[in-house]
Design goal:
It contains 19 helices and 11 strands. By secondary structure, the protein is mainly α. It starts with 8 loop residues before the first strand and ends with a helix. The chain is elongated and about 105 Å long. Helix 12 runs antiparallel to helix 18. It binds one RNA strand of 75 nucleotides through helix 4, strand 6, helix 5, strand 11 and helix 10.
Length: 484
RNA sequence: GGCCCCAUCGUCUAGCGGUUAGGACGUCGGCCUCUCACGCCGAAAACGGGGGUUCAAGUCCCCCUGGGGUCACCA
């Protein structure tokens, strides 16, 4: 299956009605990867025809989400393009034009039934049939052409009464639905705004898409759009229907399961590449490989290995993938990345701070996100006399009986020359051996004194990162605290 | 309920007629060890059921069951 046409054009067409859902992001990602791999164009189109739900804020969220993820678009908002405009509400003239064409060719008609009338009929049907769904509106205007164009009306598609409509899905093979399943769906509202299927079809045609990929919840819409394509005599793109991303319980992914908006992951300190990796791998595979760089994704992505079964969101695995990506960064990148997060905690640290650079390597092994990294780095940058002690650790390791150890440690730290890990280790280990102490009895009180916590990088490492002066000050303070 | 789609460890998946059914996350042991991690070693863990086709079926076909999607002047 060679899908690398010379002129690949794919699009992502979200409606700006909230945050950009990670399921939608995965669809966008696959399209973007495909475009980048084939050297084609990735188009971003905003489907804002639902006036009640669309907002400018949500549009900004979409754009910001895409930017944060690094899914750049070749055509769309802010960058323009030959097939623009890229907001559906700015393409109303086009929809009118195509609707008129369909009316003229007998593929559509003006319908004067009101929304309320139809709703009543639907209610009556459902009542009569014992609550069953599946009401199909039969418009009395279907075969009339005498309606006044100046009286408010909707435009409906004149769905064939027989036959089948189908396509060869990129992921699933041949799919076909009987036309008798469809009703005369609305193309244009009385106010001139198109409905999804019409706007989408007209845009995909006029924007010359070669592949339309979307969630499989749209599989019911595709036959309708194909009907429009055919009525318009337009060439069909290929269609790919991606499986959904569900929550851990197999139900629709919702807030109660996890953060569903991508930007929430940004705010959680995730890396865009980690998000992309996790999402790519949820529903697509490349042998046994789990971790991919962005570039590898572009090179290795293939529709053939995109699955068809719904995937469940797994926060644990997401975190693991994320941690792997955090570890792919070098110390300078981590330092630069974590600075804003330290700032949020009230710590002003320069990206090239000596202590920051020294501490980052040992701390990052214990972290999956920038938030965790900032937390793990935090105590290194607190003033020596403002360190706070974890309550439980203080109770356990800052007792009167820990004093002698701290005092001896203070002496060794003061005397170490040179002040490096090897020297400190030799000195401290020598002492422990001489006095037949347990390493633990020294290290845990020391850890509390130096970091205020029970968990940290190794003792010698920590001492070196803090430096002699700071280490001594912190040990002194701990001693003072214990002595009350 | 109608229509459509789907079905390998708990989860994501590899498999594209012949495999001891592989990997990853998670889980549980163990090693390492000053804590927490990292790392390393190991274990438990899957082809939903029933019919076919075939010398041979997780792989192909049918039925059942189960899950999901959708039935708007939302997208």
């Amino acid at each position: 299956m060679g899908y690398t046409g010379a002129m690949t054009r794919v699009r992502f067409a979200p409606s700006p009605t909230g945050s950009l859902h990670i399921g939608g992001v995965r669809t966008a990602l696959y399209c973007w990867l495909y475009a980048r791999q084939t050297g084609g164009q990735f188009v971003l189109r905003i489907e804002d025809t639902d006036a009640a739900r669309s907002t400018d804020e949500a549009t900004q969220v979409v754009l910001e989400s895409m930017r944060w993820l690094g899914l750049d678009w070749d055509e769309g908002p802010e960058v323009g393009g030959d097939a623009g405009p890229y907001f559906q509400t700015e393409r109303l003239g086009l929809y009118k034009e195509y609707a008129d064409k369909l009316i003229a060719s007998g593929h559509a008609y003006r319908c004067y039934a009101t929304k309320e009338e139809i709703a009543e009929m639907r209610a009556a049907y459902e009542k009569a049939s014992g609550g069953k769904r599946g009401f199909r509106f039969r418009s009395p205007w279907r075969d009339r052409t005498d309606g006044d164009p100046n009286v408010p009306h909707s435009v409906r598609f004149k769905t064939p009464l027989e036959g089948e409509t189908g396509w060869d899905d990129v992921l699933r093979g041949p799919i076909s639905v009987s036309n008798t399943e469809q009703q005369d769906f609305v193309l244009l509202r009385p106010n001139g705004l198109p409905l999804y299927n019409f706007g989408c079809a007209v845009d995909d045609i006029t924007m010359k898409m070669t592949l339309v990929a979307r969630g499989d919840d749209h599989m019911v819409n595709t036959p309708l759009q194909i009907l429009i394509y055919k009525a318009l005599g337009a060439e069909l793109p290929r269609f790919a229907h991606l499986p959904m991303v569900h929550g851990p319980d197999g139900k629709k992914l919702a807030k109660r399961h996890a953060s569903v908006g991508v930007l929430e992951y940004r705010d959680l300190g995730y890396l865009p590449d980690g998000v992309i990796n996790y999402l790519a791998r949820l529903g697509w595979s490349h042998g046994d490989q789990e971790i991919f760089t962005r570039q590898e994704l572009i090179e290795k992505f293939s529709w053939e290995h995109v699955g068809v079964t719904a995937g469940r969101y797994d926060g644990k695995k997401f975190e693991h993938v994320q941690a792997q990506h955090l570890r792919m960064l070098d110390d300078a990148e981590l330092a630069t990345g974590v600075v804003p997060w330290l700032k949020k905690r009230g710590l002003d640290v320069a990206p090239d701070d000596r202590k920051l650079i020294a501490a980052i390597a040992p701390v990052q092994l214990r972290c999956a996100t920038f938030i965790e990294l900032a937390d793990g780095l935090d105590y290194f940058f607190r003033p020596d006399d403002a360190l706070t002690y974890e309550e439980k650790g203080q109770r356990k390791f800052m007792r009167a009986e820990d004093l002698p150890q701290l005092k001896t440690l203070r002496e060794l730290v003061a005397a170490a020359d040179p002040f490096d890990a090897e020297t400190l280790e030799a000195s401290i280990k020598g002492w422990i051996e001489r006095d037949a102490l347990k390493m633990k009895a020294v290290a845990q009180p020391a850890r509390m004194a130096l970091t205020g916590r029970t968990k940290s990088p190794g003792l010698y490492e920590t001492l070196v990162i803090l430096g002699r002066e700071s280490s001594l000050a912190r040990i002194d303070r701990a001693i003072a605290v214990i002595e009350g």
